[in-house]
Design goal:
Strands 1, 2, 3, 4, 5 and 8 form a 6-stranded mixed beta sheet that branches. The chain has a domain of 121 residues: 3-Layer(aba) Sandwich (Peroxisomal Thiolase, Chain A, domain 1). The two termini are 24 Å apart. Helix 2 links the parallel strand 3 and strand 4. The protein is built from 11 helices and 12 strands. With 385 residues, it is α/β, with parallel strands linked by helices.
Length: 385
């Protein structure tokens, strides 16, 4: 069976909010329903034309995609499913939607990622016997509860040590990514991308994307004293947020007048050792380069990396010889925050803005890449159409 081409014709996201901040009282369906409505309006499709909704989520439990579907006013007959590949869930949901259309099982799918850590249920482990008390569980798959620091911090420290990436380099990168985000906001590059959930200025900007002072960055204590280089200022912190896309078959795309959008060219997933998860995006990118279907790495005009840390971003630049100017040109997760399972869908939405929505000369090819808790890297190459 020949695959049926699929096209992303709309992509929207919320502002990214700190845990306990911007979205502190919003349930996942309240966060996502306005996005689905806005993306459908952008696409020109009616809710009755949607066959399925796929959502990436890692903390809610159950099938929140069904709650989102109903809250967004999609027909009760629409299929809804939830994907959990940790931080890669949102990108995985979008790729799954494209595959569903490619197999001829759907004509139009809404897909994305959502995370409301502020309102998600707490995870509590069952005690081994009646004489022990239950305790809270971390997000890290299989993480030992007695560890003093997150495995990703330890992995990133090892990576920075191995490559000789200094604290000053990391702080400089962090400051630059904040400056990029501030310039993008001042130039209104997020207008049309972010859906304000209420009519106020806070809802239209990422809550943590506030330019820091370099001296302040330098004074932050490291996670792993005394010689650690990673700090709260040069790493990305867990945040709330969501992003949704609308994906259609070639037949429906032509019926709509062939609107500008994105087409998936290639996709790669590669696992690494759980204690080496900081290198996962690098390994996924290497695998992706083997699957570029005739395109060359030099043709890539933008790379959106959900950077877990400045060290990870610098390592990717050095390891793959990437021009820093094309990496997260409007700022990355160190500036705006890490919305966990929504992160990959946010990357695709950012690509949509850079490659489709922008009125400037746009790159033809773009990559979304990230690593996940547990040691897995994802990368996807998209072409503007």
């Amino acid at each position: 069976m020949s695959p049926i081409p699929a096209y992303i014709i709309a992509a929207r996201r919320t502002a990214i909010g700190r845990v306990g901040g911007l979205h502190k009282n919003r349930r996942i369906e309240e966060l996502c329903a306005p996005l689905v409505v806005a993306a459908l309006q952008d696409s020109g499709l009616e809710p009755t034309q949607i066959d399925e909704l796929i959502v990436g989520n890692a903390t809610q439990g159950g099938n929140p995609a069904r709650l989102i579907s109903l809250a967004a006013g999609l027909p009760e007959t629409v299929s809804a499913s939830t994907v959990d590949r940790q931080c890669g869930s949102g990108l995985d949901a979008i790729v799954s939607a494209i595959r569903t259309i490619a197999l001829g099982h759907a004509e139009a799918v809404v897909a994305g990622g959502a995370e409301t850590i502020s309102t998600a249920p707490w995870r509590i482990s069952k005690p081994r016997n009646l004489y022990q008390l239950p305790h809270f569980m971390s997000f890290e798959p299989g993480a030992a509860e007695e560890r003093e620091s997150a495995p990703l911090i330890e992995s990133s420290e090892a990576l920075s040590s191995r490559l000789g990436i200094s604290r000053a380099q990391q702080d400089t990168y962090a400051l630059r990514t904040h400056l990029k985000a501030e310039v993008a906001r001042a130039n209104r590059k997020f207008v049309g991308e972010i859906v304000p959930l209420r009519a106020n200025a806070e809802e239209a900007r990422d809550q943590s994307a506030i330019e820091p002072d370099f001296k302040d960055l330098g004074q932050l204590a490291p996670y792993l004293p005394p010689d650690g280089t990673l700090t709260p200022g040069n790493t990305s912190m867990m945040h709330d947020g969501a992003a949704m896309t609308v994906i259609v078959s070639e037949r429906l795309w032509e019926t709509l007048g062939k609107p500008h959008g994105l087409r998936l060219v290639a996709h790669a997933v590669r696992g690494v050792a759980p204690d080496d998860e900081a290198v996962a995006p690098i390994e996924a990118m290497k695998k992706l380069k083997e699957r570029m279907n005739g395109f060359k790495p030099a043709d890539i005009g933008v790379v959106e990396l959900n950077e877990s840390s400045a060290a990870q971003a610098i390592a990717l630049i050095q390891s793959l010889d990437i021009d820093e100017d094309i990496l997260n040109p409007d700022g990355g997760a160190v500036a705006r925050g890490h919305p966990f399972a929504a992160a990959g869908a946010v990357l695709v939405t950012r690509l949509f803005t850079r490659m489709v929505r922008t009125k400037e000369e746009a790159p033809r090819l773009g990559v979304a890449t990230l690593g996940t808790l547990g040691g897995m890297g994802l990368a996807a190459l998209f072409e503007a159409v």
